[in-house]
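Appendix B, Record 12. Input sequence as logged:
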Amino acid sequence: MVQALLTDLDGVIRRWDPAIEQRAEQATGLPAGALRQAAFAPDLLHGAITGQITDELWRTQVAERLQILFPTVDAAQAVALWSAPAGAVDGAVLDLVRACRQKVPVILVTNATSRLPQDLQRLGLSEEFDHIINSSVVGYCKPHPAIFQTALATVGVAAPDAVFVDDGAGNVAAASQLGLIGHFYQDLDGLKAALRHHQLL
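Logged structural output:
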């Protein structure tokens, strides 16, 4: 019987409006896609989501890279505009998580920077999970096995007794290889069916 639900944040519970990025680029003269390309370049992002650098330093480095690539724009302003929002909660998914939490512990397992606690506070999510496993705190990011093992050890549940939900197929595959019950999140109906199948709803 399933004894815990592990869930991702971004792409499952939290949504990001692509217009935020587009408005920041348009307001400062950056070409479309420049922010995403710089911010999520592996050599910059990995340090931020494994705790080697703070969120603030990561964003500073993103701005510095953009300034070099596009010397005529205000890169710092572009990053500031892009960074201002905290995303939006998918209320329907959150309702499912809350329902599951009536039966089993719910653990947030997310690749995030040191800004995660602030974002959760802004979104009203700080008290919605029994445990929060932040990659930048534990030092490993999905799909590394250690982040899943940390989550399981934290809640005291064996891998076959835990369901893991993520919108990244690679992360789900990695969790499944460790013995967790993986669900690749694509839509609300699919998630609801999976949770019902495992008697979490």
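The first strand starts at residue 4 and ends at 7.
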